[in-house]
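Marked as duplicate of an earlier ticket. Keeping the data here for the record.
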Amino acid sequence: MALSGLTAREILPDDAGRGALVGRVWRPDVGGPSVVAIRAASDGDLRAIDVTARFATVSDLCETPDAAAALRAAEGADLGSLDAIVANTPPDGRDPGQPWLLAPVDLQALKAAGVTFATSMLERVIEERARGDLAAAAAIRAEVERLVGRDLRRLKPGSPEAMALKDVLVAQGAWSQYLEVGIGPDAEIFTKAQPLSAVGCGADAGLHPDSHWNNPEPEVALAVSSKQAIVGATLANDVNLRDFEGRSALLLGKAKDNNASCALGPFLRLFDETFTLDDIRRTTVTLEVTGTDGFRMEGTSPLAEISRDPEELVGALMGRTHDYPDGAILLLGTMFAPIQDRHGPGLGFTHVENDRVVVASPELGRLVNRMRPCDACEPWTFGARALMRNLAARGLL
């Protein structure tokens, strides 16, 4: 399904004129990326203002006290209408001589929290018991729900009540490593992808070609400074291979980290008087999948139902035992684990090539991607060395 026709209005937050939005744009004229502030011109047209001379990287901006105010005060060159940049972003029909949109983060570590919602926790248990076999999932799902129940939302991880449930499940032979991180005292934090490897809105997102049971994971991702300050948020699709992880938890790296398997965007919204962590706690992330086969699926993930507060997850990410000098992006997890049958009764959901996936929230906009085999996506060739060389050549270091 083509991504052509994408517009700025389609992907921006509902209150786009109020928020402090930062993005990254590839500039063919300088052979590298620029950090941009999204601002309205006098005629109301939204423009991409290159502020790289003030903030060479988004990581630099996130280390700045009151990053939103600093972004608003930064001066820079007008790179043109945001509509034109967004329209030029999808790889099909792109003019390589004109700018296009990138993921809105750069040097930060790309981390994720797993099993943070009761629904997705139970699906992980099902994956584990099915050993990656999609056809076995339906019967196992019924058995797991009989043993554990479906509503674990009020159970605080690590609490005496949670530990009492653990004792019961262990006695019944029903305990799981996913229940351990879902209701136990320690959160699961893993590396989703490498810095600079995320794809942005309008790009193709990648599925491992050997996977036959996989799904999108619509999430909110927090931008965290090296000093553990949460400075903003963006949307994420934590593309997941259920068959690989179901075969063995030791395949988590292969299930999660492949070319183009981390999609972020469309912009990073910095915290200010219009947008705070409490807005994140109250938001609902929605998902829409549309296939060329006529398939359509929708879902929601209310952040209010998360089992660990975002600040608690950030505390598990970094502190005296984990330093991130360039900051980190932390995907908060999802409660959405699709089980809607697509290929026949009891076979559940899996992606088909060219699925169009939209992850959205009113405060953060819409992250739009097309699903393709990861070896058919645009290759990732511009890493940290290339970025440093490019910025140095432009006199920005």
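See parent ticket for discussion. The chain is about 25% helix and 25% strand.
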